[in-house]
Amino acid sequence: MDVNQIFQHKVPWLQNPDIRPYVYVRDENSISQPGKRHRLDWFSKAPIFKDPLDLAELPFAEYIYHIENIAFGPSAMPMPRWVFYDCAVMPGFVCGFAYKKDKLPALLKAKLPDFGDIDYVPLSLFIIIPTMHKGEWVAHNLCSVNSFLDKSDQFYGLGFLSKAFGLWYANVEQCSGMTQWGSPALKLHSHYGHLEVIGAYAPVHSHAKTVTYRAQVNASSWELFFTKEADLEFLEQYEKTGLLIDPKNEKSMIEIQSKIQNNEGPFYLNASEVLANDLKAPLDLYKPKGY
Predict the structure, then answer these.
(1) How far is residue 172 from each of residues 57, 134, 163, 213, 218, measured CA to CA in Å?
(2) Which of 84, 136, 166, 257 has CB atoms 3.0–4.6 Å from 200's, for a disulfide?
(3) Pairwise CA distance, residues 160 & 165, whole Å
């Protein structure tokens, strides 16, 4: 089954006329020539635009806060409002998918507060922030309503497609980011390009057992997240190092971190293995062949 068939069977919501991508960005941060860098035909619907500095758009922000707080509250990492404004809205790019409010399914509407008059309600949130390193953006936050919906009611692939839309729309060349070892999010983040581990342990972070990664964005590999096929290009270019990182073992993270600091890398994760493995299972580290 190719990715188009998968979209038809598993991601019917993507074709729902009442669901559209959104761009929540101040005018000065608007993307020039969106979608030019990566050849992709997944996002044919024009996005809706929301201005975070417009007081009339406050209800849209309240929905974003609500979804994000439910998603990250249990891990003690809900995003303070000032962080969203200072670190995301002002320097960065915010996007996702939104549902026409008067068409919201009853089961979803029942789980959301009513924050007032608004045309579309956000279903997801992806934040990327440009860095001083030309061409590099940092993925700051990714979440969706799937975090509080029963599995049978979830929007399949919503998180993955929200980040994919953002990377595609903003013409992101290199994406870096952070997530915790053993987190389901790693299964998503490893599929946007060959994922290099540039930090295996982060005591500077609130959660030291954090992986810091970067990837050269490669849209041609995104369909593998849905087809579950092996990334043959990765297997041609990389080989196992014999090293493992254990999401349950802080010592293994520190050992790999020391190797990174000693310039014994670079080390990469195989997205196919990340997707197939149990979240708590050790992961092989790879290196470029002949390196």
Answers:
(1) 26, 10, 11, 15, 10
(2) 257
(3) 9
Tens-place pLDDT, residues 159-215 = 999 999 999 999 999 999 999 999 999 999 999 999 999 999 999 998 999 999 999
Report pLDDT for 5.
76
Residue with tokens 């990377």: 167
Round to whole Å and give the CA distance between 270 and 67.
Answer: 30
Mean pLDDT for the stretch of residues 259-277:
95
The average pLDDT across 100-113 equals: 93
In degrees and rounded to multiples of 5, residue 20 shows phi and psi of -135, 155
- From CA 162, how far away is CA 149, in angstroms rounded? 17
Length of the chain: 291
Is residue 139 within 8 A of residue 177, CB to CB? The reply is yes
Which tokens in the block code for residue 4? Answer: 């188009």
ω into residue 130 within 30 of 0, thus cis? no
212 touches 202 (CB < 8 A) = yes
Token pair, residue 34, equals 């969106």
pTM: 0.94
DSSP structure string for 181-199: TT-THHHHHTTSS-EEEEE
Distance (Å, whole) CA 280 – CA 275: 12
> If you average pLDDT over residues 27-48, what whole number do you get?
93
Q: pLDDT for 162-175, tens place per residue?
A: 999 999 999 999 99
Look up tokens 């001083």; give the residue.
132
Strands 48-50, 195-199: pairing is: unpaired
Q: How far apart are CA 78 and CA 90, in angstroms?
A: 19
CB 190 within 8 A of CB 274: yes
